[in-house]
């Protein structure tokens, strides 16, 4: 990285640490499967924090729990549309679905009933479950986004019930160990920052507690380091190391609901927060617990991601700082496009399908991509377009927009020659409204007047 870029990044971090009066702050950027920059300001004890200093990451914990749930889904042990009482028969929230809890659309209360769970020792599942009665339903399920820490306490129990072990043991075995996140723990171990509240009118500190949250731990218990959290940022971007299929992580990043419908700057997927800024969409999560703030975001389109952690209860705008760091590096050292390289082999039959096709009178262009993928787009550049992934003989599955999940099927004539494409009943032919195709079929031909 250029010295000028490194200085610009450090300057942004230094300005925030000093201006927001954070006892310490750490940050990092990732790209191309590795950490490309780290920075630190302030002190932990008598020394600057390092990439191995633990900070509490709060609600970023939720994204780990979501990944555990999606692993269960991919293994066929549950569906996101399943009711909770299919697996937790004792719950009074049995009609809510797993997907609704993941996306915070179940209408469940934001916080667990009783004392503020973030500052008091947590109770077990029996106590939490008993407290989540019908009075804790704040909105009709599916109506709107309503962030629910309590919902992720429920999801943690769901994981434990289906795995036959605690959610933490499942996390260690299924995610942390495979990704090499050995410094991500439920309680601080080794070098770690203490959490503080900073007095609003004086430069003095108040130590904050960090009790075990019990059954609410899946909502915000974890601690992590720059090195470990940077690995998680890469995971969110699709570098999954087999923990989940990249397509599943992409599904988690898809918007399930928006928090600010009029402007759509903040939304939520399946356990991932979504942020739109600078014409880009970022995915990840933020975290806030007494004494700590954290943010981890990545732009999957460029592969550039960032993280920020601070040991202060409030005052540091971690999302804007993270976005600024990403923007600085992408402005000063943008990702170069991959070099174009011609294909080494070609499927002649697929190559013969490329070129113009027509949906009614509207021209489309079919292009052949790598690995037998196809790209179908309006020739004029406006309208519905999609890439299609092979799905057996003469069939492809749509990946984008209107045609996502739909099947593009090549229909052959009696002689075996390609006749037309059928895309969710839309017929694409080599000539506009081919009279030999099923729709419209048997037309009288084109006319010169409207009679």
From TrEMBL:
Annotated Pfam families: Beta-lactamase (PF00144), DUF7586 (PF24491)
Domain DUF7586 span(s) in chain numbering: 346-430
InterPro entries membership: AmpC-like, Beta-lactam-related, Beta-lactam/transpept-like, DUF7586
Domain Beta-lactamase-related, residue spans: 12-326
Protein name per Swiss-Prot or TrEMBL: CubicO group peptidase (Beta-lactamase class C family)
Species annotation: Tamaricihabitans halophyticus
């Amino acid at each position: 990285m250029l010295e000028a870029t490194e200085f610009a990044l450090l300057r942004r971090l230094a300005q925030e640490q000093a201006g927001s009066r954070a006892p310490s702050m750490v940050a990092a950027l990732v790209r191309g499967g590795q950490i490309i920059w780290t920075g630190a300001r302030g002190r932990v004890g008598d020394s600057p924090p390092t990439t191995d200093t633990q900070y509490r990451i709060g609600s970023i914990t939720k994204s780990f729990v979501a990944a555990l749930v999606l692993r269960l889904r991919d293994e066929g042990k549950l569906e996101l549309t399943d009711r909770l009482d299919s697996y937790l028969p004792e719950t009074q929230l049995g009609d809510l679905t797993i997907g609704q809890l993941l996306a915070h659309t179940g209408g469940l209360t934001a916080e667990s009933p009783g004392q503020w769970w973030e500052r008091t020792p947590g109770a077990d599942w029996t106590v939490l479950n008993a407290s989540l009665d019908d009075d804790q339903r704040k909105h009709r399920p599916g109506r709107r986004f309503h962030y629910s820490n309590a919902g992720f306490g429920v999801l943690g129990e769901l994981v434990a019930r289906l795995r036959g072990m605690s959610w933490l043991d499942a996390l260690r075995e299924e995610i942390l160990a495979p990704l090499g996140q050995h410094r991500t723990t439920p309680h601080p171990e080794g070098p770690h920052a203490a959490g503080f509240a900073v007095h609003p009118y004086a430069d003095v500190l108040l130590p904050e507690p960090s009790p075990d949250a019990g059954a609410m731990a899946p909502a915000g218990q974890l601690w992590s380091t720059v090195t470990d959290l940077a690995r998680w940022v890469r995971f969110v971007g699709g570098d999954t190391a087999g923990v989940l299929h990249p397509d599943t992580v992409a599904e988690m990043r898809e918007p399930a609901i928006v928090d600010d419908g009029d402007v759509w700057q903040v939304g939520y997927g399946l356990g991932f927060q979504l942020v739109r800024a600078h014409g880009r969409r970022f995915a990840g999560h933020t975290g806030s617990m007494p004494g700590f703030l954290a943010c981890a975001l990545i732009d999957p389109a460029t592969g550039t991601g960032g993280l920020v952690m601070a040991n202060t209860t409030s005052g540091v705008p971690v999302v804007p700082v993270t976005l600024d760091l990403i923007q600085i590096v992408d402005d000063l050292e943008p990702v170069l496009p991959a070099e174009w390289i011609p294909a080494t082999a070609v499927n002649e039959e697929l190559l013969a399908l490329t070129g113009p096709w027509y949906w009614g009178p509207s021209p489309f262009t079919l292009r052949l991509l790598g690995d037998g993928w196809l790209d179908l787009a309006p020739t004029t550049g406006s309208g519905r377009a999609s890439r299609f992934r092979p799905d057996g003989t003469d069939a492809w599955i749509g990946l984008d927009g209107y045609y996502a999940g739909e099947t593009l099927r090549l229909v052959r004539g009696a002689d075996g020659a390609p006749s037309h494409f059928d895309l969710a009943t839309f017929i694409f032919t080599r000539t506009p409204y081919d009279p030999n195709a099923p729709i419209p079929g048997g037309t009288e031909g084109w006319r010169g007047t409207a009679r």
